[in-house]
Amino acid sequence: KKQSRFAFQGPVAYINDKYEDIAPDDIEDQDTFTGTIDWAGYTSQYFMTVVMPKEPIKGTLKLSYANDIATNRLVQKMDRLDPGKQGQFDYTYYMGPKSYKLLSGYDNSLKKAINFGWFDIIAKPLLITMNVIHDFIPNYGIAIILLTILIKLVFWPLGTKSYKSMNEMKKVQPLMMELREKYKNDKQRMNQEVMGLYKTYKVNPASGCLPLLVQMPIFFALYRMLYQAIELRHAPFFGWINDLSAPDRLFSFNFSIPMMDAPAGIPVLTLLMGASFLLQQKM
C-alpha cells in the first residue's frame, strides 16, 4: 500500500516483444494476458524475481491480487504424454538486482526489465552515462554532479537564448504596462499594440519559456533514473552521506518531525538547495 509513486512495484512480463507492468489495482480489470512470453515475474524498486523459459513460449499469465499479495503465474500448455514417455521443460530463474550493467551481460531480453516508463528513452542513456563516469571516478555522488553539469553544457545554447529573451522582455515591460493601462477598456486594440511592440523590439515572449520546457523532460527522466538506479543503493558520497538512496540527514534525533520521513535529522542538502533557489531568485 505504501509503494512509491516513482518506482513501479508489482507483476511484470516481457510479452509479445513488449515490456508490461501490471499495477496490482488494475488486476481486477484484467487478470489474464496471452501471447508470446519471454519471461514473467515480480519487481520491486531495486530487485526482481523472474521465471524465463529456455525459448519464448506461447503461454498465458494468470494474475491475482488479494490480502496485499500480488501473484503472477506463467501457464504453459503441455503436450500429451503417452505411457512410458517423458517431457522436459527448461526454465531459468533470476532473483537479483535490477542492474542494467549486470543484465546486459546476458544474451536474452532480461535487460528490458530496466524500464523507466514514459522517460525510458531518455533515462536509459543517462543511466549508462552515469555508469561510464563512475568507471573513471568511483564515486556515484560525483558521477551525478558531473552528469548534471554535462546536461547543462548540452543545453547551454538554449539556456543562454532563454536568459537573453527574458532580459529583452524585462526591457519592454514598462512599455507593456503603459499600453495595458492605456487600452484597458479595449482588449482587441491592446493585443494589437502589444504584438506591435514585440515586433518593433524583435521580442518573442515564447522564446524565454520554450528552452526551459525542452529541458524539463530531461530532468524528469534524470530524477526517475536516480530513484530506481540500484547502483545508488548503499553507495557513499562523503561525510555523513553514506547512502545515496536514503534521505540526507545530519545527526539523528530520537523524535519525529512533521512532514519529514524517518530518520529525523538535519536535511543539509535540502536546506542548501532551498538557499540556492532563493539566491537565484535574488540574482
- Helix and strand run: EEEEEEEHHHHHHH
Our Rg estimate from Cα atoms comes to: 27 Å
The end-to-end span amounts to 43 Å
Taking pLDDT < 50 over at least 5 consecutive residues as the criterion, the unreliable ranges are none
Biggest sheet character: 7 strands, antiparallel
Strand pairing plus helix content: what structural class? alpha+beta
Mean pLDDT: 87
- β-strand percent reads 15-25%
Number of helices: 7
Overall 3D geometry? elongated
Task: Count all strands and give the number.
Answer: 7
Overview of this protein structure:
- The mean pLDDT is 87.
- Strands 1, 2, 3, 4, 5, 6 and 7 form a 7-stranded antiparallel beta sheet that branches.
- The relative contact order is 0.09.
- A hairpin with a 2-residue loop joins strand 5 and strand 6 (69-76).
- The chain is built from 7 helices and 7 strands; from the N terminus they run E-E-E-E-E-E-E-H-H-H-H-H-H-H.
- By secondary structure, the chain is an alpha+beta fold.
- Helix content is 40%, strand content 19%.
- Helix 2 packs across helix 6 and helix 4 crosses helix 5.
- The chain is elongated, with a radius of gyration of 27 Å.
